[in-house]
Amino acid sequence: MKSIGVIHTPFKEKSETPIQFSRSTAFGEIEIHSEFEEGLTSIEGFSHLILIYAFHEALENDSLLVKPFLDENMHGIFATRYYTRPNPIGFSVVRLVERIGRRLKIQWVDMLDGTPLLDIKPYVPEFDVHKVDKLGWYETRSHQ
Question: pTM to 2 decimals?
Answer without folding.
Answer: 0.82
